[in-house]
Amino acid sequence: MSPIIHSQAGDIPHNMTTTAFDMPGCRIVRNLGVVRGVVVRSRSVVGTIGAGLQTLLGGNISLFTELAERTRRQAFETMLAQAAVAGANAVIGIRYDANELMRGVTEVLCYGTAVEVDPLER
Fold first, then answer.
1. Domain span including residue 87
2. Model pTM?
């Protein structure tokens, strides 16, 4: 499986994702298995120095916050692309995990269960 790096926003709408194990208003008709998005990022020297200066002032370290948000978003979008390739139209049970692989290098994993859902009859 090749890594997916470009934007995947159109594959599965974000409103068809949830951390719950069901999709409100829908019936799960097929479980397509676990899908995941993995991103490994390192901090740049310039970013690390800038963040170090921000720590002197206290409060939110925006350089690291922005890096974390970009990384999580990329892992999430990659997971959605994998779900779309599997034939899903929704992803349930979404979770994140992060591990430091080495000093300054972090892996972010976003995973969930790819499912096919149909709307409930009203």
1. 14-119
2. 0.78
